[in-house]
């Protein structure tokens, strides 16, 4: 796909962030998604300061350049034609630190594993569920990531983000509209940090809870194959994996895309799959579940970008 960014637009981005960001043009998104699928993005920008992020969003708004954050790409499917505009990565805005009032502030680019490690070291319970959640805090807040041990909504005090105008927005927990794998935080905003309220818990208890969660996931989920975790949200009072397996779809393939034999709700990149192949497989699964159960599965993975 032709880039939307001409020479002037590219220079405007570079001028806006200066030396306060990494900038790569025509960057393959294969390198930035756990599915290892997707065409190039016009510009990949990793701000090193909040100021650079705000300036980047302002220049994009002024020039009509689409831009959004993509975190670690753990819940993302990028179409083969790639992404027009700017992919914002918060890899340099990724700190975790305690505050005097006993809360913990976590940057939007902080990996969930880093947050869990900090909590474990300081004997703070409440985020044990992160032992089963890949990705970063920013994406986790927008989708209210979690497991049976809990969700972000259970520990979040407030969320800070930057809107399309480059202005800061602050929401208290009740304003975030957290629900199952979703929130009211607009996807057009970029979550820059969140304040968490955790409770004291002995380190060994935290480790045991996380160990049990990881053992459970290890026993029933695929490994050593590019994936985005669960492909579909669980419908009310049921499990997407159960419905798909009941349709006899484990192991079903379209090109290099496969319904994992280990867990039917994990549609994986088994062998150099394209986005088109995975999307075709998604529709095959959806149609089969509708035909047998009358339930249309809703995607948990986010699909972005354009066809070639």
Could you walk me through the main structural features you see in this protein, from its secondary elements to its overall organization?
- With 308 residues, the chain is of the alpha+beta class.
- 28% of the residues lie in helices and 24% in strands.
- It has three domains: 7-88, Uridine Diphospho-n-acetylenolpyruvylglucosamine Reductase, domain 2, CATH 3.30.43.10; 96-206, 2-Layer Sandwich (Uridine Diphospho-n-acetylenolpyruvylglucosamine Reductase, domain 3), CATH 3.30.465; 222-304, Uridine Diphospho-n-acetylenolpyruvylglucosamine Reductase, domain 1, CATH 3.90.78.
- The longest helix has 19 residues, at 275-293.
- The model has no long low-confidence stretch (mean pLDDT 95).
> How many strand elements?
18
Which oligomeric state applies? single chain
The parts where pLDDT drops under 50 for at least 5 residues are none
Residue-averaged pLDDT: 95
SS-based class:
alpha+beta
Range of helix content: 25-40%
